[in-house]
């Protein structure tokens, strides 16, 4: 963080120093009355006030659970401070509040914790759901969405882990392991034959929750996946991965442990 002596108390000086990391890549915590004559103390007070008024998300870049949480928070327009971590160097602040040590973790302004990705998604979308990802007008679909997500998070993920392992270590049963994953992939392909998204013609919480896992399946053996015949699924995956939402959710942030600097996850 920049040195803030009285000599260098101009907001611009402070802004440049506090956010010396690519401004284009990460979003600033506060972008308000810069240029006006605020003292360094006032700026620091305002910064602290703003930081305290926003929830904190501990997040891991390529973790499918963290990805789905980030996408839902964006769709719900719930700005959060994103603290990027890596598993081999977890912040002590994170382990103190959640010793189980998995990400994502959302720390709410009142101090409550949500340490399950699906719960973070539902928390965000229940607060605000401008695109109706919960399909409120068709409430009978919600239990079906949760049920599909549950198949993904249990059976499919177990099979996917085995397939990833089998592929990495060239296990003789790799094809068999992949076929076990394809049971779920085929189920998604069938759903997507009828609609552009899993539960209709618009995005739902299920699409966001499942997408990072299908992406992980594709990444195990991209060459095989390109040749496999899942046209509807491939189209769905491609469209979502090319979306602005996905690119915002995958934006790379400096690691929290490096400098303890705060950055917002939002649409800016
Ligand atoms: N059920 C949890 C699973 C979260 C999870 O397993 N995250 C992985 C990263 S993808 C993790 O944090 N693992 C801890 C570690 O590798 O030390 C959720 O949905 O949030």
Explained architecture:
- By secondary structure, this protein is α+β, with helices and mostly antiparallel strands.
- The chain has three domains: about 5-50, no CATH class; about 55-130 and about 250-265, Glutaredoxin; about 140-245, Glutathione S-transferase Yfyf (Class Pi), Chain A, domain 2, CATH 1.20.1050.10.
- About 55% of the residues lie in helices and about 5% in strands.
- It has twelve helices and five strands.
- Strands 4-3-1-2-5 form a five-stranded mixed β-sheet.
- α3 (about 65-75) links the parallel β1 (about 55-60) and β2 (about 80-85).
- α7 crosses α10.
- It is globular.
- The protein starts with 10 loop residues before the first helix and ends with a strand.
- Bound molecules: glutathione (GSH).
- Glutathione (GSH) binds near residues 65, 103 and 104.
- Glutathione binds near residues 65, 87, 104 and 118.
CATH architecture of the largest domain: Up-down Bundle
How are the strands of the biggest sheet laid out side by side? 4-3-1-2-5
Radius of gyration: 21 Å
Domain module count: 3
Q: What is the overall pLDDT average? A: 88
Report helical residue fraction: 40-55%
* CATH level 1 name of the largest domain: Mainly Alpha
Structure summary, number of beta strands = 5
In CATH terms, what is the fold-level topology of the largest domain? Glutathione S-transferase Yfyf (Class Pi), Chain A, domain 2
Beta-strand fraction estimate: 5-15%
Structural class by secondary-structure content: alpha+beta
Q: Name the hetero compounds present.
A: glutathione
Largest sheet: 5 strands, mixed
